[in-house]
Amino acid sequence: xxxVIQRVNRASVSVDGNVIGEIGPGLCLLIGITHxxxxxxxxxxxxxxxxxxxxxxEAPEPxxxxxxxxxxxxxxxxxxxxxxxxxxxxxxxxxxxxxxxARPEMAGPMFDRVVAAFRSSGLRVETGVFGALMNVxxxxxxxxxxVLDSADRNTPRRG
Length: 159
Fold this sequence. Notes:
The chain has 3 helices and 6 strands, in the order E-E-E-H-H-E-H-E-E. By secondary structure, it is of the alpha/beta class. Strands 1, 2, 3, 4, 5 and 6 form a 6-stranded mixed sheet that branches.
């Protein structure tokens, strides 16, 4: 499972010109699901995202890194958007291939479980419509963008 996490001042998702989900300060997550993902991958992405300290302190001091609080600490919102293109392969040709992305019949229920897991945190969670053509509006804060890949959790850390 992959997640592109963006710290936002606000974000929204629209389908057919209608806003169906929007948040204020918080995180916008683009979530890609591969056919090998399990609930362990889901748990890793959810726990890392909820606890990652990527928001500034309430009263920043000179020299602060700006990475002191989590989305839970600030009571931020979460906008979750399913995005199979995170598993695009561009190894050959000019058109990306998506064989590493989970098929919709597997990815849809997995995405629903991701949404449910984030909702269990008590934070406000908004979503797009799985499989729909969506327009996502994001006002980045920072900008801060982090890519999480659950496959990396088993990779030894360097140095």
